[in-house]
Amino acid sequence: MSANTTKYSSISVALVDDFIDYSKQLKNSFKGAFNPLVSIYSMITELDTTKQLSNELLLDVKKKLQVLPTFYHVQVTRLFITRFVKELEPDIQETELNRDCVDLEDMLMAACSDFEGWEQKIPSILEVLYLALRSGIDNKQDTVLRSRVNLLVSDRNVQARVLYDFCNKYQDKYDARLKQGVFPSAR
């Protein structure tokens, strides 16, 4: 294992710890259906603002995300979801695969393709989750999109299934290309 691989793996684990700590803080002030996607969305919203961050935890998250190659973001996301469910919301139970889950996964994969087309780069899985939710919140005309995003946010069991499957699909689609930027021998 190279020094960079060890460094990035350590950053990934520390980042998941930070995500969990942020989620614990958020949960204490949150009323309603708390879930990993709400936590990710809230965190990215705060990181995405142009204002100066005063929260030390968020400053640390931002620094780690800037250093960590996109290749590692899917592992961070998957581990965060797993730990979130086990440590913060153990009553979340992954639902059986159904048509709604497949539609939501397709929506997220389409968001990946759209982002890649616009930006000419592979999106971070975290960016995709944020942008998919943002588009469902902002788009007042597309009732299908709004209802899908609402289902994804409001049904924690569906969300768990969709997020795990989306991590797998994202990794299947982008893993080889993202590895090239991190592991020179992958070329």
Q: Can you walk me through this structure?
A:
The protein has 187 residues and is an all-alpha fold. Helices cover 75% and strands 0% of the residues. It has eight helices and no strands. The longest helix is centred in the last third of the chain and has 27 residues, at 156-182. It starts with a helix and ends in a 5-residue tail after the last helix. The model has no long low-confidence stretch (mean pLDDT 90).
Summarize the structure.
This protein is mostly helical. The protein has helices spanning 3-28, 36-48, 56-67, 73-88, 99-119, 125-138, 143-154, 156-182. The radius of gyration is 16 Å and the shape is globular.
Features:
mainly alpha; 75% helix; 187 residues; single chain
Question: Which secondary structure elements does this structure contain, and how are they paired or packed?
Answer:
Elements lengths: L2 H26 L7 H13 L7 H12 L5 H16 L10 H21 L5 H14 L4 H12 L1 H27 L5
Helix pairs in contact: 1-2, 1-3, 1-4, 2-6, 4-8, 5-6, 5-8, 6-7, 7-8
